[in-house]
Design brief:
7 strands, alpha/beta, 9 helices
């Protein structure tokens, strides 16, 4: 439909999972896509090649969002090749440690926060500092989690990072609302990606977990990507500072019967 024609998008962690699905969807809508990876170079190249096979432009970049130098280098390269960045999708993240707070060491906590919170901060800061055409619309999208509100024992590092991202995105939306930059957040529920590897590999575990979801199915990366396209498109021109839960109703059901 070319809803993103002539736009340039940088999507962190787009070598697999939700990030890959968003990258492919943006390419299908006519965007030039900066695909990034931290360790899976082959996955990054595969995503970029698949976008190119659709008839759109894409480049594959190494990006460790927890490293300021790496962030700067990736932004410099995509601007060198495409001249600008219109859309930033902060998708890269790590899962929780499943370690109780009393047993969690500082390095474990730091690793989660550096990737899930500092990473989007570094990327947003670089995006804003390198705005080439300040009069054109800018888009920043965060991929958070329903665990920004729904907490689980043993994942204080992950829960804290996602709750922080929710409020970081809202604060940023207020800073940028009069600067023609929209900022929104997507909070996925149970999505069939590597972070839910157990459910992907074991049908019994998956079916048991799906019984807790009102729609009785796990989500797909494409379910999230569809919302990310909407939030980057002119169809959402008057939307900023919001969070869209993509969870089959899971968030609103939790707590029922307590």
């Amino acid at each position: 439909m070319d809803r993103l024609k002539d736009k340039v998008a940088l999507i962190t962690g787009s070598d697999s999972g939700i990030g890959r699905a968003i990258a492919l969807a943006y390419g299908a809508e006519g965007a030039k896509v900066g695909v990034t990876y931290r360790s899976d170079e082959e996955g990054g190249k595969r995503t970029a090649e698949d976008i190119q096979a659709q008839g759109s432009e894409a480049i594959c970049l190494h990006l460790d969002v927890s490293d300021e130098t790496s962030v700067t280098a990736a932004f410099d390269e995509i601007i060198r090749q495409y001249g600008k960045i219109d859309i930033l999708v902060n998708n890269a993240g790590v899962n929780g440690s499943d370690v109780p707070v009393a047993e969690m060491n500082t390095d474990t906590f730091d690793k989660c926060l550096k990737t899930n919170l500092y990473g989007p901060f570094f990327c947003c800061r670089e995006y804003l500092r390198k705005r080439v055409h300040p009069d054109s619309e800018g888009i920043i999208i965060f991929i958070s989690s329903i665990h920004e509100d729904v907490n689980t024992a043993g994942n204080a590092d992950y829960n804290a990072s996602k709750a922080a991202i929710k409020n970081f995105s809202r604060s940023l939306s207020l800073e940028l609302a009069d600067k023609n930059i929209r900022v929104n957040n997507i909070a996925p529920g149970m999505i069939l990606t590597e972070m839910n590897q157990e459910a992907m590999e074991n049908q019994e575990i998956r079916k048991e977990k799906e019984q807790h979801i009102p729609m009785k199915r796990a989500g797909t990366p494409e379910d999230v990507a569809n919302v990310a396209v909407f939030l980057a498109s002119p169809e959402s021109a008057y939307i900023t500072g919001t969070t869209y839960a993509v969870d089959g109703g899971l968030m609103i059901l939790l707590g029922q019967g307590a």
